[in-house]
Design brief:
- The protein is an alpha/beta fold.
- The chain folds into three domains: 2-109; 111-203 and 376-403, Rossmann fold; 212-362, Rossmann fold (3-Layer(aba) Sandwich).
- It is built from 14 helices and eleven strands.
- Strand 1, helix 5 (124-135) and strand 2 form a beta-alpha-beta unit.
């Protein structure tokens, strides 16, 4: 009988080691009922330990040392300790999973469920992904094209005016140089300097370029340019829009081109043998680049100046006169208007012929606020959270007069 138990112990010890190894390697099976497994193991341990105890006690009375020697006491101790470890592990695992499950259930109950949709814009999938990841800790977000609680829209269409969206809270997010009509939008994110209490958040478009298209450090980019031989190519530009744009940049191009030929890689005055596909890569061979907006307005600043910095150029910028609140004015050349053309061209000539002056500009810090990306993201999340946390009736700020009979 003792041999039988001894074999059982050996088998149990082997099984225990297998289980322990699987636990260590993270390859153990996911038990359907962890609590039941704990009970089975614990009972098995009690039964086996009890039997061994009585056998030892009985044999001790007979003073049968031969029988006792046949029992591997070390194996018994090892086996019992292993059972305890496995039992405790599974029990704790079960309790922790239960607690985590309860916490998640409570968290889901506390979150507000909202439905929204993006209209009249590009990159819908990207925007859906961003807003879900940014606000998933506060809201359960669903996307509904038919009956959303909130509608985000841009300037590229009029679908947001359809009658099926008349009850939705409208949030305009403009990336072009157009002033948002707050008679239509309940809330807005735009570029112009407007103060409209909690209904408006200003966010220049170039910050979008900083956040979403690069993690590059401008200091490193400019230092890399300084470490290499000075670029011999003068200036380049990529102007694709040749139609309804501000005529000033065409005027400036013609005047600067009289000094040295400007290599143009877009649709306007292309002289490099076709449109370039990678703008930043194309610009990396030049000292300067034209970074001029399609239209001029205080507050409207697109990705153009950021592209120039990413290419390691000194940007020649025309557009938002107030961009100096974000970009160090010593790091680029700001053209303010027609009366400024000749003075700035003379300054460009001076930089082009003075290597030390050129290098000193490249050493300048680019961003006024090094945390602009993080601060802007935080402010945008705060702005949207305020909208979504309100009761929908209170959040609605525009009277639906256009839908009334």
């Amino acid at each position: 009988m003792i041999k039988k138990h001894y074999k059982k112990m050996k088998y149990s010890e082997k099984s225990t080691l297998i289980i322990k190894n699987k636990i260590k390697k993270g390859k153990q099976r996911k038990f359907n009922n962890m609590k039941l497994m704990c009970i089975i193991l614990f009972l098995d341990f009690i039964i086996l330990s009890t039997n061994i105890h009585f056998l030892l006690k009985k044999n001790d009375k007979k003073n049968d040392n031969n029988i006792i020697k046949n029992i591997d006491l070390f194996s018994i101790e090892k086996m019992t300790n292993s059972y305890k470890e496995i039992s405790n592990y599974l029990n704790n695992k079960f309790i922790n999973n239960k607690l985590i499950s309860n916490e998640k259930s409570e968290e889901i109950k506390e979150k507000k469920r909202i439905s929204l949709y993006f209209l009249d814009l590009y990159n819908r999938e990207y925007r859906e992904k961003w807003i879900k990841s940014a606000l998933e800790d506060k809201f359960i977000i669903e996307f509904d094209s038919e009956n959303p609680d909130y509608v985000f829209y841009n300037v590229f269409g009029c679908s947001h005016l359809k009658s099926k969206y008349k009850d939705a809270i409208k949030i305009a997010h403009f990336t072009e140089n157009q002033i948002i009509d707050l008679n239509i939008a309940d809330y807005a994110i735009g570029q112009h300097h407007i103060n409209y209490l909690d209904r408006y958040y200003r966010r220049p478009f170039f910050i979008f370029q900083l956040i979403n298209y690069t993690n590059d450090n401008f200091t490193e980019i400019r230092q890399e340019v300084l470490n290499n031989p000075i670029r011999t190519k003068f200036c380049a530009g990529v102007i694709s829009n040749t139609g309804w744009t501000d005529g000033f940049r065409r005027l400036f191009y013609k005047e600067l081109n009289k000094y040295k030929v400007i290599d143009m890689g877009g649709g306007y005055h292309n002289n490099v043998g076709g449109r370039v596909r990678n703008k930043i890569k194309f610009l990396k061979s030049y000292k300067f680049s034209l970074a001029m907006e399609n239209t001029k307005a205080d507050g409207y600043a697109s990705e153009k100046i950021i592209d120039a910095f990413l290419a390691g150029n000194i940007p020649i910028y025309y557009g938002d006169y107030m961009i100096e609140e974000y970009i160090n004015p010593k790091a680029f050349i700001l053209i303010k208007g027609e009366n400024d053309i000749m003075e700035k061209i003379e300054y460009i000539k001076k930089i082009d012929n003075d290597d030390e002056l050129y290098k000193s500009i490249l050493r300048e810090k680019v961003l006024i606020n090094d945390n602009i990306k993080e601060d802007s993201t935080s402010e945008r999340i705060k702005f949207l959270t305020h909208i979504f946390e309100q009761n929908k009736t209170l959040a609605k700020r525009v009277d639906n007069y256009q839908w009334k009979k």
